[in-house]
Write a structure and sequence with these properties.
Jelly Rolls, alpha+beta, 6 helices, about 25% helix, 4-stranded antiparallel β-sheet
Length: about 250
């Protein structure tokens, strides 16, 4: 492993993750992986648009043509695994989860030009539905992100008042889960394309509208330290081994 990767995540980053729930790595995604994710994202958007056009609709599930897209768990059959199981993501997992890491979930979240909607304050763990060890979200920017185009806002543990899971309720209009109703606006992640905001699944976060004439595309691989299961005992999503007792099982 290169010296660059070994030193990529600083001791300060590790301490901040433990104390506040997150750290941010700027401009760390290799250009070839950034191009790969953009290409695959574009292919999926085109496929969704074609399906909606053929059906004569503008909505497909929670996807809205030209507005917003959630394209989840499609890495099989694509080259996305090259990034998911890369040396870079192995270092991120080791710094946050330790010697064991499993791919839990992955999705593109896309906000269309001048249309992309906002998302309420929530913790990702609220969507699992059963007690579990917190996992990590890797918020990978495929475009430069700003407050204008709907970047993510993070609420550090020290200001949220807790690192535990908050009670959530469903918004009647958006159907988003909401877990924080205080006045703290959080801290916006303002980084160029190819950056990664790494945060715990118990980190409160939200995002704003995209008010720019350009797309805002993000890729979100999530990793857990152990397989996560729902109340019925079934896997909550994936449990693809990446690191097991420090040994690479994927991406070797």
């Amino acid at each position: 492993m290169s010296i660059t990767l070994q030193n990529l995540i600083s001791d300060q980053d590790r301490k901040q993750f433990q104390s506040e729930g997150f750290f941010v790595l700027k401009s760390v995604v290799p250009p070839e992986h950034l191009a790969l994710m953009r290409e695959v994202c574009g292919q999926f958007i085109a496929a969704h648009d074609a399906e909606m056009e053929a059906a004569g609709v503008t909505h497909q599930g929670i996807n809205i043509k030209g507005n917003r897209y959630f394209i989840a768990n499609r890495h099989k059959g694509t080259r996305l695994a090259e990034f998911i199981y890369s040396d870079l993501m192995a270092e991120v997992c080791r710094a946050t989860l330790g010697e064991n890491a499993y791919l839990f979930w992955e999705q593109f979240v896309v906000k269309g030009p001048e249309k992309g909607s906002k998302f309420s304050w929530h913790q990702d763990s609220a969507y699992v539905g059963t007690p579990h060890r917190p996992y990590i979200t890797c918020w990978v920017t495929l475009d430069d992100v700003s407050e204008a185009n709907g970047t993510v806002y993070l609420l550090p543990y020290s200001r949220a008042g807790s690192r535990e899971l908050f009670p959530h309720k469903q918004n009647d209009e958006s159907h988003d889960l909401e877990g924080y109703f205080g006045s703290d606006p959080g801290d916006p992640v303002l980084v160029p394309a190819g950056s990664i905001a790494v945060f715990s699944s118990t980190m409160l976060h939200r995002s704003g509208f995209n008010r720019t004439p350009n797309w805002r595309r993000v890729y979100l691989p999530q990793y857990s330290a152990e397989p996560l299961r729902r109340p019925d005992g079934k896997l909550a999503a994936f449990a693809e081994p990446f690191l097991v007792n420090g040994v690479r099982r994927n991406g070797t």
